Amino acid sequence: MKRDYWPTDEWRIAEPSSLGMDPGKLVELNRTVKDQYATVNGLMVVRKGYIVFENYYNGFKQDKPQHVASVTKSFLSALIGLALSKGYIQRVDQKVLSFFPEYEPAPGDIQKRLITLRHLLTMTAPMAWKKSDTTGHEPLDRLRRQRNWVQFILELLGQNGRPGAFQYSTAGAHLLSAVLTRSAGMCARQFANEHLFKPLGIREIPDYPEQGFLPDDVFGDTLKGWVHDPQGNTAGGWGLTISVRDMARFGLLYVSRGIWEGGQIIPAEWIDESWAENPHDYGYLWWLKKEGDIFVYAALGAGGNAIYCIPEKDLVVVIASEIILKARDRWPLMTNCILPAVTE
Prior knowledge:
By secondary structure, this protein is α+β, with helices and mostly antiparallel strands. The protein has helices at about 25-35, 70-85, 110-115, 115-120, 140-145, 150-155, 170-185, 190-200, 215-220, 245-255, 270-275, 330-340; strands at about 40-45, 50-55, 65, 240, 260, 265, 285-290, 295-300, 305-310, 315-320. Strands 2-1-10-9-8-7 form a six-stranded antiparallel beta sheet, with helices on both faces. The longest helix is centred in the first third of the chain and has 15 residues, at about 70-85. The protein is globular, with a radius of gyration of 20 Å.
């Protein structure tokens, strides 16, 4: 995609009306956030590569990194695509266990041997949650107490179902991060810094040694850098701290079909596969949404953190939020204020 500039060093700001956006709708957006969305910390709208709306709330600043929860998963998806393009991983249909030869499944554990990277990317790998987990949610609190997270997840893999059925799994994303570490010889944080963040002008994520693995250490609001497990594998499904403007750079890369500064950072084919329609409305660690005839591809995280990518409108929307339970749905901000603001 041809652009007259790229925001590698600095973003440019434009009047909304000059880029086919209704300023009145964006004023309404700001008012709605203030009136109805107390936990939104930052919101940014990018049209045709230019910032047309940017505001921060609750004392937040544009350069302040924030934990974005499961938005992390979509960043990991990009890293797997990069690893494939560079030959560290051969194909998405490789068996997961082939990356962990030291792990010996039970002789009768046939399904575990069938699980591929594609199953993990599309959340279609069965995972067994213990029967004592009456909520039906995966045991992430139990996971963080393990001495070896990967071993714990491999034990859960391939149980309680058949491959192909959708089952949302943060644990599966962490397994993908461990695959990347073993394939590329560096953790996902290092790989991202070198092959993804640096080319885009995203700040380097430093190594912050874990102080421990208590809930606040791995899930809290005071996280720094990118969480890793006891073996040094970067958390695959959460734990990334990043600023709103850097989230927008990542979204713009995807809207631009992987092109940045004239170079192909992520293969366009990988983005096409990641966003291909399917019955589960979930691609390669991306949510697939639709509003009327408009396709929206979303990286979503707890509390209402989001990156919305709308390629046909050359539009990126970023929302950074405090992570709370039962946060107010952010999607009405898109349907009531942002998408109607596009006038051409």
